[in-house]
Amino acid sequence: MTIGRVNTPSLNLRDQPDGQILAILIGGTTVEMLTPALPGNWLFVSAEVSGRTFFGWVARQFVEGPGAGPIDPGSSGAGGSGPGLGGASSSGDLAAQLGAQIASGRIIFDNNSLRDQLLGGSSGGIRVTAKLQSLVLKLSTMTPIIRISSLIRPAAGSHHAVGRAVDIGNEEIAGALLPLIATPQKVAELEIDELIFDARIIDPANDKNKFNFDQGVRHRFNDATINEHGNHIHFAVKADSLS
Ligand SMILES: [Zn+2]
Prior knowledge:
The protein is of the alpha+beta class. The chain is built from 6 helices and 14 strands. The chain starts with a strand and ends in a 6-residue tail after the last strand.
């Protein structure tokens, strides 16, 4: 973890370089620099404001700290050790690791509210679970880029309504990704409940349910469900034991 300190009376925290202001950091505020080794004039940081954790971009010149001045190519800030799964990571650690993956372009979103949801923000009083954050983090290390097209949404009977489901919108990665995941061992390891994708998108000769799981076991979904899962890959995770 690389810590810096705001060295100006007030500093804007923005959703992207030169983007919209998310929060104002007063002088002396401590920030965690999630991308100290990235070149350029902007740093991706997390900071506490009024008891809430914000993620965003600040101008590098207004932060004092190890990575804030001249860039040290040896810094391990954005990379580091591989993300862990399971109960060892606190939600803050998960958000920081996800923030680093976002900053390096390995996780992208159809809109900014999805990014806030993934990092732990509430949508209609619902937050994504730590298990879902862990799964997304793991997926982002198994394929060059994932594009999230849906997280929390009110849909009766859907795991999306309780923060346990994610839709991956760049389904073109399915052919490389799903064979790595759709095995009983891997599904158990990643604590996946549902995996739904129409495998005919990869190859018309495929069994449409080739990769699909429900409640952690292989499952054949009906055609109505299959036909809704040709333009994204749906994952849901098991319930968090503590929530
Ligand atoms: Zn879905």
